[in-house]
Amino acid sequence: MLFKTFTAGLLLICLHTASADTLNGVVTGITDGDTLTLLDEQKQQHKIRVVGIDAPEKVQPFGSKSQANLGLLAFQKQVTAECPKRDRYGRELCKVFVDGKDIGLQQIADGMAWWFVKYANEQAPEDRIAYEQAESMAKLRRLGLWADTNPTPPWDWRKLLKN
Q: What is the number of structural domains in the chain?
């Protein structure tokens, strides 16, 4: 019985440690269509990369429109960000919500970002389904970047710049 109690307690500690940090604050800056700055309740700034999406680079077609759209969704608004890890640039990788609405999903639905399939395995199954469906609908409706006949995904754009 003592072993079971110890094991259950250890499991709870591990689950708590593995859970995402949650930040609450106001968005004070929009870098591009998938990156923002959050000022938390302790007045600390956090550079956040919105998970699940990849928006056009600023110099790409729809880059500035994607940035503006993210601004409409989040700038100077109260947000909640679930941040399980950081990227290689030190940005916090977060799923961001405004009034309970996933703004990454909304960027995809508005045709202002791609679903970042490369990292789909890091998403919850219901998020994978929602993001894939949102992208399919945006393509079908030719919204935003899908108005172009063959838009270049940012990961391909970045690869071309390296060569």
A: 1
